[in-house]
């Protein structure tokens, strides 16, 4: 057994994520037998002394049958309606299944916005920590009933990786409808299983496919989740969940890629947002951001593109147009042209003390290039 597999076997705090396809029938209804089997695995690991957080998809899928919908609807309002119906059914099933093992569960519904806003982030962190302290097994899902297209995780793989950071988990297990990562569609000849991913070279031959019919995530989201998690990650199917948690050589093992974990806010900025505009900067500003960890000041700004408001995520681009960083901007797009090339001291003197602030503070700025 590899040392990384041993880390998973001995992990004291674990996040396990199951996709819709692992929990529902092809018709979109809850599969009680599959849920019971997975609950048995999670309860057993918890009985061994580990703290478990379960990230569960399936709310929308569980609501399809009761609403008479033939498949996942493209309209956001219908998805939210299905989630509203399905989330209650799904959680009731989990409550009953875990009760067989004497385990109390708590429901935690999150949006991407909760990961970005400092007060929401801290509240989510405190809530999950307190639930674990009380011996409760948290069941986390995206709050599909209120999330909008602009503030969605889009899949629970990324949510699981961010939750793992939020609770400082030791390991992450992603359960999918395939048993591992393959170089191509595993149903077709020539597809080769990838046993371990130590770095980008191991993904060179992998063709990352699109999502399935019921769920929203594909292999690309799972690889991305493993990359940002910063802890050992195993990708496999629900049938091999127990083996994966025991450190057995099943599925695909992703080795940690980051020597130091990002903050959850920076992970959200880097991997769960899209820049709402672009702030163009000179070479000096790029160098200061990348190598000295400074804030973005008005003096280094040379241009602005897009229509964004203060607080929006924007991309910071160098003279060559390449994105160097992304951050939460302190000004509306219309305000920035008057500030470009000026010192904050000059701005405070000429425009008032409210302008003596950064375009983007370094605490709300994440680097997106290895340069």
From TrEMBL:
It comes from the Bacteria. It is found in: Cytoplasm. InterPro entries: AceGlu_kinase-like_sf, Asp/Glu/Uridylate_kinase, G5K_ProB, Glu/AcGlu_kinase, Glu_5kinase, Glu_5kinase/COase_Synthase, Glutamate_5-kinase_CS, PUA. It catalyses: L-glutamate + ATP = L-glutamyl 5-phosphate + ADP. Residues 277-356 form the PUA domain. Keywords: Amino-acid biosynthesis, ATP-binding, Cytoplasm, Kinase, Nucleotide-binding, Proline biosynthesis, Transferase. Belongs to the glutamate 5-kinase family. HAMAP family: ProB. This is Glutamate 5-kinase. The gene is proB.
């Amino acid at each position: 057994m590899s040392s990384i597999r041993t880390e998973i076997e001995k992990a004291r705090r674990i996040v396990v994520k199951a996709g819709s396809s692992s929990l529902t029938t092809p018709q979109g209804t809850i599969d009680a037998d599959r849920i019971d089997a997975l609950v048995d695995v999670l309860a057993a690991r918890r009985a061994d002394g580990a703290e478990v957080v379960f990230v569960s998809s399936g709310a929308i899928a569980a609501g399809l049958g009761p609403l008479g919908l033939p498949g996942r609807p493209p309209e956001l309002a219908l998805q939210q309606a299905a989630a509203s119906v399905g989330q209650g059914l799904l959680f009731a099933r989990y409550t009953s299944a875990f009760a067989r093992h004497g385990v109390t569960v708590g429901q935690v519904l999150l949006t991407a916005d909760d990961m970005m806003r400092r007060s929401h982030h801290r509240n989510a962190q405190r809530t999950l920590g307190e639930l674990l302290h009380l011996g409760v097994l948290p069941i986390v899902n995206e709050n599909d009933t209120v999330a909008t297209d602009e503030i969605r995780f889009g899949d629970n793989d990324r949510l699981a990786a961010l939750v793992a950071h939020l609770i400082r988990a030791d390991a992450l297990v992603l359960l999918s409808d395939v048993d591992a990562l393959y170089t191509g569609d595993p149903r077709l000849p020539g597809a080769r299983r990838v046993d371990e991913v130590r770095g980008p070279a191991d993904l060179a031959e992998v063709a990352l496919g699109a999502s399935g019919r019921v769920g929203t995530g594909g292999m690309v989201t799972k690889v991305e989740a493993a990359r940002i998690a910063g802890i050992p990650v195993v990708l496999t199917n629900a049938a091999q969940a127990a083996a994966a948690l025991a450190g057995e050589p099943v599925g695909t093992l992703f080795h940690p890629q980051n020597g130091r974990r990002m903050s959850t806010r920076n992970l959200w900025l880097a991997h769960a947002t899209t820049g709402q505009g672009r702030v163009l900067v000179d070479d000096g500003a790029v160098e200061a951001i990348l190598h000295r960890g400074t804030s973005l000041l008005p003096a280094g700004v040379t241009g602005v593109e897009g229509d964004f408001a203060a607080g929006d995520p924007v991309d910071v681009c160098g003279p060559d147009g390449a994105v160097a960083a992304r951050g939460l901007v302190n000004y509306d797009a219309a305000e920035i042209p008057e500030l470009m090339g000026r010192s904050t001291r000059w701005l405070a003197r000429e425009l008032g003390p409210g302008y003596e602030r950064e375009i983007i503070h370094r605490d709300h700025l994440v680097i997106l290039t290895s340069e």
